[in-house]
Fold this protein.
Amino acid sequence: MRIAIYATLCLWLVLVANAVRAAEAPIIAAAAANDMAAVNQMISSGAEIEARDAQGRTALLAATHANAIEAARLLIEAGADVNAMDQIQDSPYLYAGAEGRLEILRMTLAAGADLASVNRYGGTALIPAAHHGHVETVRLLLTTKTDIDYVNSLGWTALLEAIILGDGGAAHTEIVRLLVGAGADVDISDADGISPLTHAKRQGYAKIIAILKKGGAR
């Protein structure tokens, strides 16, 4: 009997949660569509700007996914949390950094982004930015107090990801140059004890090898 009551209560709570999400979905959809008039109207009407969808995303995170800059601006000006994470540990700040949403990233930084927050791989925004080859994003993040040598759950720093997961092309080479120039430790090895220089040599990235050696890599 108690088990049946408990199961019924759990089902009721799920239904209530889904109903709340459904009721608040319009602001999330409007933000993703960069519909500024709708977003502004809903904010003015008192809509809950931290409402979540089924994936745990807020309107601001949905706007960040869509690179809906103006909708994101409205939401941030209204006080939206730039550090609110979804079910897979993305926040507007972390996602903007990882995916090179530069204008939104600037806004999240100005609004109090948590530089120490980490994604589902245990990495700061700088690490996937380096991995994905977002040069200007890396350049911007290096002007902040983010930990340049932070090691994620895979055992990689931003420098290691730029080399291991990069393609050795112009973007990743410039990112390596920026990181080394900003003081990144060129000798932090991965979890297997392999250094950035060794990875670069294995990949045959001559320009990156030269940057690392000039930075004192062993």
